[in-house]
Specification:
Strand order of the largest sheet: 2-8-7-6-5-3-4
Distance between the termini: 31 Å
CATH superfamily of the largest domain: Type I PLP-dependent aspartate aminotransferase-like (Major domain)
Strand content: 5-15%
Shape: globular
Number of helices: 12
Radius of gyration: 20 Å
Largest sheet: 7 strands, mixed
CATH class of the largest domain: Alpha Beta
Order of helices and strands: HEHHEHEHEHEHEEEHHHEEHEEEH
Structural class: alpha/beta
């Protein structure tokens, strides 16, 4: 699979050009309102003194970093606020490749394509490890694939696109493998609020100096356009402490800082949003999972029910999920999904559906008719 060129827009643009109504289940843009604190924060910021319209501290607004640190139970100086989780992942992977010997990045197959694309961009060697039949990456498979060339291991939990959620035991094993092979575990946890299995455990809970956890607010607060993410690096006084200072420097050289009004609004939302906001979002998505999976059962599709996140990967009888067939499903069925081949060889033939649309019931009925 070509990970050099993003493939998502290829399908989205095709769907937009279609001559019929199409339910877009390609992108991961939440369709619900953000917390009220986001709007309140932006309104207040608009009336702030002119001095507040200047550069924010490069590592992030102090109060925002404090709230992140409190939630993650880490020292505030370990937190770097970034331009989305994408930059956080970039800084973590680049730091791992610099600090540890080897040039290999171990990834899950199927993989979120931007991880593999980033590995290529950084001149690393991506090694994809296939998940098991339940969609989980097994620590034993990672250990078998790892070698002295391994510098970075990336685990996404809850996972895009498989929906797998990894508990404390699995995360501890992943961290132990990273330590054993003198590598960095990058734990991307951007979907942590969407855990239906109740099993999610942060990589930070392992206490390993070989772990960087990345996260953000694009999904949990439905603000993908704000680009506020963060990374939690190991302590500066530990054996991998240089990862933190290098990340700070690279963030400053590349971006100087992250949007001040966006950080201000996110901090307000963290301070004022009750837990039931996230619970409602999670319940909404759990209902959509049931709706789509019911349709998949009716048409005889093979799939793994997601334990977290908001994606379902499905295989349909006699209809492999190639780009050509996805285009046919758009034209003839009115539903747009993402070809599994965009995520790696293990998912070739499948189609990934994003559940961040209020039209999941419509999509379910259209799939039933198309595959009848």
């Amino acid at each position: 699979m070509d990970y050099e060129e993003p493939q998502f827009f290829r399908v989205m643009q095709y769907a937009r050009r279609a001559d019929r109504d199409v339910v877009d289940m390609v992108s991961g843009n939440p369709d619900w309102d953000p917390p009220e604190g986001i709007r309140d924060g932006l309104r207040d910021y608009a009336e702030a003194d002119a001095s507040q319209f200047q550069y924010a501290p490069s590592e992030g607004l102090g109060r925002l970093r404090e709230r992140i640190a409190a939630r993650r139970d880490v020292a505030v100086d370990r937190v770097v606020v970034t331009n989305g989780t994408g930059e956080a992942n970039h800084l973590a992977m680049l730091g791992g490749l610099d600090h540890f010997p080897g040039d290999e990045v171990v990834l899950t197959d199927p993989v979120y394509p931007y991880y593999a694309g980033r590995a290529n961009f950084l001149g690393a060697t991506p090694t994809l490890v296939a998940v098991d039949d339940s969609g989980h990456l097994r620590p034993a498979a990672v250990r078998e694939a790892a070698s002295e060339e391994t510098a970075v291991i990336v685990v996404n939990t809850p996972n895009n696109p498989t929906g797998a959620v990894y508990g404390a035991d699995a995360m501890a094993e992943f961290a132990a493998i990273a330590e054993e092979y003198d590598a960095l575990l990058v734990s991307d946890e951007v979907y942590d609020h969407f855990d239906y299995a109740g099993r999610f455990s942060s990589g930070l809970a392992t206490g390993s100096p070989n772990v960087v956890a990345t996260n953000g607010f694009s999904k949990s607060m439905a603000i993908t356009g704000f680009r506020v993410g963060y990374a939690v690096f190991p302590p500066a006084d530990g054996p991998t402490g240089e990862l933190l200072e290098r990340a700070r420097t690279r963030h400053m050289l590349t971006n100087i800082t992250t949007s001040r009004p966006a950080q201000y609004a996110v901090e307000r939302a963290l301070a004022t949003t009750p837990p039931d906001y996230y619970a409602r979002c999670r319940d909404r998505l759990a209902t959509r999972v049931e709706t789509l999976c019911s349709a998949l059962d009716d048409v005889g599709a093979d799939y793994n029910r997601p334990e977290g996140g908001f994606y379902v990967m499905a295989r349909f009888p006699s209809f492999p999920g190639s780009f050509e067939n996805v285009y046919e499903l758009i034209d003839e069925g009115g539903v747009a999904g993402m070809p599994g081949e965009a995520f790696g060889s293990a998912s070739a033939g499948a189609i990934r559906f994003a559940l961040v649309t209020p039209r999941v019931e419509t999509a379910a009925e259209r799939l039933r008719r198309f595959f009848a």
